[in-house]
Specification:
By secondary structure, this protein is of the alpha+beta class. The chain has two domains: 93 residues, Alpha-Beta Complex (Conserved hypothetical protein from pyrococcus furiosus pfu- 392566-001, ParB domain); 36 residues, no CATH class. Helices cover 32% and strands 17% of the residues. The chain has five helices and six strands. Helix 1 crosses helix 5.
Length: 182
Amino acid sequence: MGDDGSDNGDRSVKIKDRIKKLARVRAGDLIPNERNWRTHSKAQKEALQGVLAEVGYADALIVYETDAGLKLIDGHLRAETTPDTLVPVLILDVNEDEANKLLLTLDPLAAMAGTDAQLLDSLLRDVQTGSEALASMLSDMAQSAGILKLGDPPESFPEKDDNIEVEHRCPKCGFEWSGSPT
């Protein structure tokens, strides 16, 4: 372990802890970073609203101090979604250049992580949500990981007999079913 308690594998490099403190700040009082290059789709916004409604805040926004106030590095969508909420904020001891480096790299570094499809499948089977937007996001994750392919029936779906009578047929795709369409 290093002097700061970190174990970075390379004993010759000391990694600095740049977190000054954890505070609770009204999200609307945080200054959006004008250099934030990330955009947020309607689906992402709705999925975030779903997880915030079902779980709540479980991660801190990341900011640094400027003469004008606390400026966001990470957490723009969460701050925008809950402007009147006191949110957990990690206040970093970084300068503007370091903040820009973090702004540029935090999301891409997370996106570089691979996917263990078997563990993802297990986790997806255990997680339930009442949010349609969050369920859609999880379904997209499963499809991207090759766990769920469009058109594959669920495991519990009975084998189809070509002689089975159906009540309805979709004129567009030819899908056939019996019972209520909803």
